[in-house]
Amino acid sequence: MKRKFFILLLLISLVSMSSCEWFGTTFLGRPSKAELARIAAQAERHKRDSIAEAERAQLAALELMQQREADSLKRAEMDHVPLQGERFHVILGSFKVPENATRFFALLEREGFHPQKFKLNGFDCISAASYRTRDAAYTELYRIMMYDYCPEDFWIYDARTNLHNLGK
């Protein structure tokens, strides 16, 4: 009986000590409350650092996109030659009535463009600008789309098709 009592007492003391932090850390290998707090703080710092790094990467990507767009616009400006003779023309209007073409031509001049007027299939076509490359012409076309006076029926005309008369 004494032996059973002793074993029971030993078992009760072991169970009660297992909830003790000292016993858990010393004998059972559990981390202490201070270690748990340190690990949680380290995880929080790592999370904040990861978020900050992601934000920095997004800002860098945005700056790179803006730089590429600025470079593209700069290249488009370098390719731009407002005089006739270039291959690709940004056509903003074609008019059957010559007076309408003249009014639209004057509007584009007031807006700072160097428009050209030529005949194409019996219509007076108004070109806002002409470019050596198709990419530069499309860049200008997309830029012009933002203006209020931009019509819905605009296109890029390739002068190599030779369907036009450059006479006014």
Looking at the overall shape, the CATH architecture of the domain at 82-165 is 2-Layer Sandwich
CATH topology of the domain at 82-165: Alpha-Beta Plaits
According to DSSP, the number of beta strands is 5
Structural class: alpha+beta
Q: Fraction of residues in helices?
A: 55-70%
Low-confidence stretches: 78-83
Q: Work out the strand percent.
A: 15-25%
Largest sheet descriptor: 5 strands, antiparallel
Strand order of the largest sheet: 4-1-3-2-5
Q: Round the mean pLDDT to the nearest integer and report it.
A: 79
Could you name the CATH homologous superfamily of the domain at 82-165? Sporulation related repeat
**End-to-end separation:** 123 Å
Write the layout of secondary structure elements.
Elements: H1 2-18, H2 21-26, H3 33-79, E1 88-95, H4 98-110, E2 116-120, E3 123-131, H5 134-144, E4 155-158, E5 164-165
Antiparallel strand pairs: 1-3, 1-4, 2-3, 2-5
Helix pairs in contact: 3-5
Describe the 3D structure.
This protein has helices at residues 2-18, 21-26, 33-79, 98-110, 134-144; strands spanning 88-95, 116-120, 123-131, 155-158, 164-165. With 168 residues, the chain is an alpha+beta fold. A five-stranded antiparallel beta sheet has the order 4-1-3-2-5. A hairpin with a 2-residue loop joins β2 and β3. α3 (33-79) packs across α5 (134-144). It starts with a helix and ends with a strand. The relative contact order is 0.11. Mean pLDDT is 79; it is low at 78-83.
